[in-house]
Amino acid sequence: MANPGVDATSSQVPESPLFDIKQVPGKGKGLVARIDIPTGTRIFREKPLLIARNMSPHMLQKDLEPKIKALAKDQQRQFLCLHNNFPGQYAFAGIVKTNALPCGSGAMVGAVYPTICLVNHSCMPNSHTNWNEDAGHETIHATRFIKAGEEITIAYDKGGTSDTRRASLKQSFGFDCDCPVCSLGIPELQASDTRRLQIQALDDAIGDPFRMRSSPAASLADCHSLLGVLDEEYGTGRAVLARLYYDAFQICIAHSDQARATVFAERAYKSRVVCEGEGSPLTQKMKRMMENPAGHPNFGGYSKNWKTSKSQVPKSLDAVDFEKWLWRQGR
């Protein structure tokens, strides 16, 4: 069973059995594993000090002033102790711009935390951050085994090549990324950039609803290709695997294939558990889809060409043949 981690729901940051807050060379403060942390462990969860919308520095400063005044004194100190990569006239806005994490994918609001905002970036992170809308807190989960003494990291970037990521990180957060990926030699970095461009291209193709309707086998094949590139670039445990498996689920369920959809939903569920924990709303959604794939609103919405029932998941195939069946290879 994964260690439940630390519940930091108060303004005081409790001592953690999993990590220490230390000075990290070239990065300022960061979180460093105190002990070995297994994959899937919830390292930390924390409620925000404040939440702010994305707006101009001048308007953000005006919006923040009453919110900061309303904080308790210890919370004000925690906020003011956070790093500011954009010093100047709008100091509060600079702290928020440097530290805020989005409250969910594509959110227009961001939250500032006393401890989670100390977790530094890596383009090859070992942890994943997730906003739990229902509980109103952020969690950090280990997406791979983290050794004692290793820094705990998350990804701030939105993908793309190293040049794209570094430019975006510089503009949004004010630092030059020198993570292990961005510091690779030229041949290795070019190979990584090529894989990340492949990831983007495949993800775009999979997300095309017209292609999913007219050429579902090709869309599913792209999911399988993406799985291989993701494994080569990142290894297992990335949160993007959950989305990949959910995409494969949606392709199958839209064409009435409950058997394969059940397997993909289970894999998406397990990936969510690693990255977000059992209590995540998205984890629970995938658990429901695993138990009742026909309950998805788009069940059979495109065709009945692949119609199967849950009971038709094969039980006697070996691992290799099962994967061939799952991805409809050789058909």
TrEMBL record:
Pfam families: SET (PF00856). PROSITE patterns: SET. Residues 17-157 form the SET domain. InterPro entries: SET_dom, SET_dom_sf, SET_domain_protein, TPR-like_helical_dom_sf. This is SET domain-containing protein. It comes from Coniochaeta ligniaria NRRL 30616.
